Amino acid sequence: MTTLSDTTLPEPAAAPTGRTRRQGLSERALARVFVAPGVLLMALVALFPVVYAVVVSFQDYTRRQYNGWAGLENYATALSSSRFWESLWFTVYFTVTSVGAEFLIGLGFALLMNMAFVGRGVTRAAILVPWVIPTVVAAQMWFFMFNVSPGFINNLFGLGDINWLGQSGTAPFAVIFADVWKTAPFVALLLLAGLQTIPDELHEAAKVDGAGVFRRFWSITLPLLRPAILVALLFRTVEALRVYDLPAVMTQGTFGTESLSMLVQQYVVQTPNPGIGSALSTLAFLIIMGVGLVFVALLGRDLVIGKEGS
User: Fold this and answer.
1) Can you point out the beta strands (E) in 41-117?
2) N or C: more exposed end of the chain, with fewer CB within 10 A?
3) Cellular location of this protein (predicted)?
4) Cβ 61 vs Cβ 275: under 8 Å
């Protein structure tokens, strides 16, 4: 009869030593190996135009004929041009005013869409309609609306024959108005997503404690909405700094509405001077990247790229 003492038990498996663990890649290292080719390819695709523009910006051209090394001459020409500063001024003015108005209007739309009322679905659809219209189509539509002939805006409000797009005082306003109409719903959509992450229990508890509507908005909604606000401002600010379609279609860059992107396109595509065009595009890239880095710093590294190990 076989007893328990007669049975030979298998030896327990040896605990893995450090040498054993080093024989194979960990899951994290293996994931990095598989992801590396894609990341490398994306980096090459994204960085190649930037690096190429920087290289060309240090070279001298005459009607696309290469003349040799130019050093910082193209940058000196660009920075000493009044046209560059005028286009930069309009770009900054357009960005600050349009993004500010879009944030305020978008926040109002988001608060409205977050409320429960009859017809909320129809209201949401109506608010988001301008956002789905292509920018060029919206620009052409507002060109006809602000045009003095047939003058839909003038006829609608009884304003006479104001030439909105033909004056330096009103042309920038018309372009900014069209951009706010087009993009405020996008800001509202981002803020609405942030509002829906705020637990209702916080508002209910504050209401029990006697906090009013403004107090709850100021002390609960705004602080918890901060990440969504910064993301919305980041997207819209970077996009506004690159504005091209609206002023190109509505005013062709006249009457103080030439943006930095329009100026770069003028030198790179229309005017055969790739050296100055590349210097302008490099300056525009540095400005936009600087603004983007400021927002990333405000957002926080963990919020943008995720926490290590998550």
Assistant:
1) 59-62, 65-69
2) N
3) Cell membrane
4) yes
**Domain boundaries 81-272, CATH class:** mainly alpha
β-strand partners of 89: none
Q: How far is CA 243 from CA 176, 216, 246, 306, in A?
A: 11, 37, 7, 30
Tell me the domain boundaries of the chain.
81-272
Q: What is the pLDDT of residues 235-267, one digit of tens each?
A: 999 999 999 999 999 999 889 899 999 998 888
Query: Which residue, among 88, 55, 44, has the nearest Cα to 284 in the 3D structure?
Result: 88
| Residue 60, CB-side half-sphere exposure with 13 Å CA sphere | 9
pLDDT at residue 1 in the model: 44
Which of 27, 95, 153, 158 has the alpha carbon at shortest distance from 287?
A: 95
Contacting residues for 79 by C-beta, under 8 A, at least 6 apart: 283
Provide the whole-model pTM.
0.81
The encoded tokens of residue 203 equal 């508002």
- In which residue ranges of the chain is pLDDT below 70? 1-24, 300-310
DSSP at 107: H
DSSP-based three-state secondary structure for 69: strand
List the structure tokens of 29: 């290292």
181 Cβ neighbours under 8 A, 6+ residues apart: 130, 138, 142
Tell me, what DSSP letter sits at residue 12?
P
Q: Partners of 61 in the beta sheet? A: 66
Task: Write 228-232 long-range contacts (CB < 8 A, 24+).
Answer: 228/190, 228/191, 228/193, 228/194, 228/195, 228/197, 229/103, 229/191, 229/194, 230/295, 230/298, 230/299, 231/190, 231/299, 232/103, 232/106, 232/187, 232/190, 232/191
Q: Could you tell me if 99 and 240 are in contact, meaning their C-beta atoms sit under 8 angstroms apart?
A: yes
The dihedral built from the CA positions of residue 242, 248, 249 and 250, taken in this order, carries a sign that is positive
Q: How far is the C-alpha of 128 from the C-alpha of 141, rounded, in Å?
A: 17
